[in-house]
Design brief:
The complex is a heterodimer. Chain A is built from three helices and no strands. Chain A is mainly alpha-helical. Chain B contains seven helices and no strands. At the A-B interface, α1, α2 and α3 of A face α1, α2, α3, α5 and α6 of B.
Chain lengths: 100, 175
């Protein structure tokens, strides 16, 4: 029988993979994709808790997370496009205009 | 009923493999497509948990709109140039792996004590669109309306960024 622990363990694994991606990737687009992985992992635990506690609040929070993530992705991708236009690269190391 | 564990393990395996592919693949196009697979597995897991509405919204909004937007940007920027794919992409790989592993170990320790502390049984709630909609428009009406404000602010941000790009372009062309 699949219990709450199975879902939480899966969520923990996906979250760690996302953390690994954020730390290691230089590509800004990939950092944004890893951020999506973090949100996906937290969504799994929200829905699992909602199911096992018999409370609908978790599913509503997932709904709001999806909305906020959509706004975040739109702004983030706009910034990436601007960065590519100005610097002709999307590597995070190239952003050193504010370095002194 | 006996099929549920089979589907859970299948989805879990595909989910973990696809998320690793999102992180490790070098081609940005493959990263985005792997994330589509992740979203599909996530939606299936939500269906197994009988959260039908949230699963469908995830599929429609994420796989349908957000990831297509990602793909559009990848195509638009022409990121599939060989120099970018072969460029060294990973610094801190050792430290990142170590940090993620420590994080995972900490999470599992916390989970172990938590699961031992309380033994929850599967309830029989079903997240159909009727129930979720009813709660959304009564109890959570204010946050729901505030998200429209958030989306409006995001639109303002994007438009002002695009305007700024036009402005910079003009300035560079005249000088």
């Amino acid at each position: 029988m699949i219990g709450l622990g199975h879902y939480l363990a899966l969520s923990a694994i996906v979250f760690s993979v996302g953390v690994f991606g954020i730390i290691t990737s230089r590509n800004v687009l990939k950092v944004l994709l890893s951020l999506e992985l973090l949100l996906a992992a937290s969504n799994i635990s929200f829905v699992a808790f909602s199911r096992f506690n018999g409370d609908y609040t978790g599913q509503l929070i997932v709904f709001f997370v999806i909305l906020v993530a959509a706004a975040e992705v739109a702004v983030g991708l706009a910034i990436i496009v601007l960065m590519y236009r100005r610097l002709n690269t999307i590597q995070a190391d190239e952003l050193k205009e504010m370095k002194w | 009923m006996t099929l549920i564990p089979f589907f859970f393990y299948l989805c879990a395996a595909v989910l973990v493999l696809a998320s690793l592919f999102v992180v490790l693949a070098r081609n940005p196009l493959y990263n985005v497509l792997a994330l589509v697979v992740v979203i599909f597995c996530l939606s299936t897991l939500f269906m197994l948990l009988e959260a039908y509405f949230v699963g469908m919204v995830l599929l429609l909004v994420y796989a349908g709109a957000v990831l297509v937007f990602f793909l559009f940007v990848v195509m638009c920027l022409n990121l599939n140039t060989p120099s970018l794919i072969t460029a060294k992409q990973n610094r801190f790989r050792l430290w990142g792996g170590l940090a993620a592993f420590m994080f995972l170990a900490g999470l599992f320790l916390a989970l172990k004590s938590f699961i031992a502390a309380q033994n929850l049984e599967q309830s029989s709630i079903r997240g159909t669109i009727e129930i979720i909609g009813k709660i959304l428009f009564t109890e959570y009406l204010l946050p729901f309306e505030l998200t429209s404000l958030l989306l409006l602010i995001a639109i303002f941000g994007i438009v002002s960024l695009a305007k700024g790009a036009l402005y910079f372009g003009k300035e560079e062309s005249t000088t």
